[in-house]
Amino acid sequence: MKKQNGLLTTVLGLAMVFTVSAATAGDIVVKGSTTVLPIAQEVAEAYMKENPETKITISGGGSGNGIKAIIDGTTDVGNASRFIKDKEVKLAVEKGVYPVPFGVAYDCIIPVVHMSNPIADVTLAQLKGIYQGRIRNWKDIGGPDKEITVISRDTSSGTYEVWEEKVLEKERVYPGALLQASNGAVVTSVAKNPNAVGYIGIGYLNDQVKPLTVGGIEGSKETTLNGKFPVSRALYMFTRGWPTGDVAKFINYVMHPEKGQKFVEKSGYVPLY
Amino acid sequence: MTKKRQSTEKIMKRFFFSVAGASIAILFLIMAFLFMEGLPIFKVVSVGDFLFGHYWYPTSDPADFGIIPLIIASLSVTALSSMIAIPLGVMTAVYLAELASKRVAEIVKPMVELLAALPSVVIGFFGMVIIAPFLQNVFDIATGLNLFNAALMLAFMSIPTICSLSEDAIYSVPTGLKEGSLALGATHWETIVRIILPASVSGISTAVILGMSRAVGETMVVLMVAGGAGMIPESIFSPVRPLPASIAAEMAEAPFRSDHYHALFAIGIVLFAFTFFFNLIADHIAHKYRQVGEASL
Known about the structure:
Chain A: This is Phosphate-binding protein. Chain A folds into two domains: 27-106 and 234-267, Periplasmic binding protein-like II (D-Maltodextrin-Binding Protein, domain 2, 3-Layer(aba) Sandwich), CATH 3.40.190; 107-232, D-Maltodextrin-Binding Protein, domain 2 (3-Layer(aba) Sandwich), CATH 3.40.190. Chain A has helices at residues 2-23, 37-50, 63-72, 86-94, 124-132, 158-166, 183-192, 221-225, 245-255, 260-266; strands spanning 27-32, 55-61, 77-80, 99-114, 121-122, 149-153, 178-180, 196-201, 209-211, 213-214, 232-240. Chain A is an alpha/beta fold. In chain A, strands 1, 2, 3, 4, 6, 7, 8, 9 and 11 form a nine-stranded mixed beta sheet that branches. Chain A is elongated and about 60 Å long. Chain B has two domains: 3-43; 51-289, MetI-like fold, CATH 1.10.3720.10. Chain B is built from twelve helices and two strands. Chain B has helices at 2-38, 47-52, 68-99, 102-117, 120-139, 147-171, 175-183, 188-199, 201-217, 220-225, 243-250, 259-288, and strands at residues 56-57, 64-65. In chain B, 38% of the residues are buried. Chains A and B meet through helix 3, helix 6, strand 7 and helix 7 of A and strand 1, helix 5 and helix 11 of B.
């Protein structure tokens, strides 16, 4: 029995050493949203080149996990493709933690169709009808007499969450929609199907699919920044309390127009300025 | 000398026992983990609502955790792919074991087995970019990413399993039985149908069930080509969302230990129950139809 206790103490001790070392100076742990992940990776690589004494470990796991890690103190920076929820704030405050949000980039989500589709513009109401399964044929919105194939991201994706909030206005996507697991898969299936409509993050737009304007407004860097394009969102990095030391330096680097923000653009998202 | 040999014998026995014991223990731990993470969802929804609910909206507020469309999708995809794969696999096996000349068999057999070596993501991609537009044009349907496409791709994946296991079973039918049949004046064809196939039925059915298990559990292919619509399919050209596809698509974004996370593990339990059931059937058939005497396999 005694021996077992000894072993347990050792294991716990080791675990504590590792947890503590994850938060010691010189090392930064970044966790969370897979949407923000490409930005974090690009920026961290550049940051480590300039500050070789700092080691940054990055992992994905989703926005919820990033925020949870901030509350639990298992990470220094928690990435999220959405703002913190009330329930999470409450939990954090109960534990004596004050999560601080930093908007680090914008993302805009653009509806796309097959290159052969004559339609160039849809309204938000039409998009809502299509994704709720009320509008089933392209001729209903001025296109050819063809059934619409609705392509959506799966319901747990952050991109879907924004779409649900801004286009579906919290209504549910119609169950007959084809759910794809990634932005890339949406592009492939829209490019291969003349009847399809899908939506993707601006970074995934290429010449295989045709972007639609929404209510006459083109989704671009400018319309996202001036707030005219209706389907856009901010991407966040959360810290545990107001950041100090290396974490503060890292966050400043991410926000710097000449440094971090350059990589935001490189990873396909819309920079802050 | 004898003593040394005996002690080696003992040590080897213990060594192998501990290796076998460790793998079984690990399997049981995984199973325990699966149940530990999956069962808490039933505090939120009842087992009946979970298994027979019509809507799967795990992230909505309020959330719906009904997986009947997913179960039906999995079963129909597996059934359709078996309908394609079983005749093709078994007939190929008969051809290779009994009818093909030695040279042809030597070329064809490795080729069939090569199919098994294709990574599933390649098969999925093939289905997505080649087969889907093809189906859409030929049948004039709304999308080529559907039940039929998924069944076709899964059939591709289970044919090698079915074929090579069946071939082994057919091949190991004792020559005595075959020679006896031919000596009584039966033709080659009669011998195949009346003697060889019944003698190897236990092996062939095990092959078939293992092939089906592979189809029901395969994830990448159904994630890529089944379309992913959480609706009960109306035809074989409806897009569907089988169980493994839901787990794979959603696990990364489900918050740790949330209802959604537990629900995905509960889907894992259902899937586990299916494959477990399939294997039980395979085991049962293998025992029931086991030939005795010379033909035992």
